[in-house]
């Protein structure tokens, strides 16, 4: 049986991990909660770049790498693709389709943090849904702005910021209630794709709010790409998957 290394940290990756048999390995960078309900092995921590990962693949007799990391985890994806070339190991990737603007959307596309801050200048009460990056800039908030930053882990508020510790999926009703309570005037988002966090975009559309959208990074070519978890699981041999009948 081909031994699999699954690179995860997303909800989609966890769905795959829950289907893997004990011989396989689910790898996490260490952020967030480590699942304790899996049949497969769980590894937490980095590998030491592409060369370190290549050594791990050879030493652990890994025959397939599945990259199911976040669409913005470009460095991890690049290291995985390079390591697989070095180790002569096939690499598959779950590449979640990006969201597409709908009628009534006002998306302002930006490429990096500096462009984002420039686009944010006219607004007063942004909702950040970028992950942890805004936490490094809380001391740079302009006096006229108040930031709400939604992240996985708790963090102290400040005079001009509120940190919301929350984990998706987020419901449409829940997002409507949050937007009504906080009176946001702009949403700042990555184009993560998927349904788990899409409700914020629908509420922004309903309320006529602009969305400052960070463009996706360019990801490396791999041996096979899949748009959905179901498609990827269908491609795995039955022997790779744990018995889920109980």
Automatic annotation (TrEMBL):
Pathway the protein contributes to: Cofactor biosynthesis; adenosylcobalamin biosynthesis
Oxidoreductase recorded as keyword: yes
Single Gene Ontology MF annotation: precorrin-6A reductase activity
UniProt keyword Oxidoreductase present: yes
GO BP: any one term: cobalamin biosynthetic process
One Pfam family per UniProt: CbiJ
Name recorded for this polypeptide: Cobalt-precorrin-6A reductase
Coiled-coil segments on the chain, per record: none
Entry EC number(s): 1.3.1.106
Record keywords, A-Z: Cobalamin biosynthesis, Oxidoreductase
Enzyme class: oxidoreductase
């Amino acid at each position: 049986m081909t031994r699999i290394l699954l690179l995860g940290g997303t909800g989609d990756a966890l769905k795959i991990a829950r289907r893997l048999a004990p011989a396989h390995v689910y790898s996490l960078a260490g952020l967030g909660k480590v699942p304790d309900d899996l049949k497969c092995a769980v590894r937490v921590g980095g590998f030491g770049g592409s060369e370190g990962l290549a050594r791990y693949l050879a030493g652990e007799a890994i025959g397939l790498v599945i990259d199911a990391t976040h669409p913005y985890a470009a460095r991890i994806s690049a290291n995985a693709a390079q390591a697989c070339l070095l180790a002569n190991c096939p690499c598959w990737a779950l590449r979640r389709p990006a969201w597409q603007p709908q009628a009534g959307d006002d998306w302002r596309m930006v490429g990096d943090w500096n462009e984002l801050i420039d686009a944010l200048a006219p607004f007063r009460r942004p909702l950040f849904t970028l992950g942890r990056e805004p936490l490094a800039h809380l001391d740079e908030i302009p006096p006229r702005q108040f930031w709400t930053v939604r992240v996985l882990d708790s963090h102290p508020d400040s005079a001009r910021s509120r940190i919301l510790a929350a984990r998706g999926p987020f419901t449409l009703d829940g997002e409507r209630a949050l937007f009504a309570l906080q009176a946001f005037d702009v949403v700042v988002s990555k184009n993560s794709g998927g349904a788990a966090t899409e409700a914020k975009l629908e509420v922004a559309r309903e309320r006529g709010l602009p969305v400052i959208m960070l463009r996706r990074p360019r990801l490396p070519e791999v041996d096979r790409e899949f748009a959905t978890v179901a498609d990827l699981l269908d491609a795995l041999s039955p022997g790779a998957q744990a018995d889920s009948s109980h």
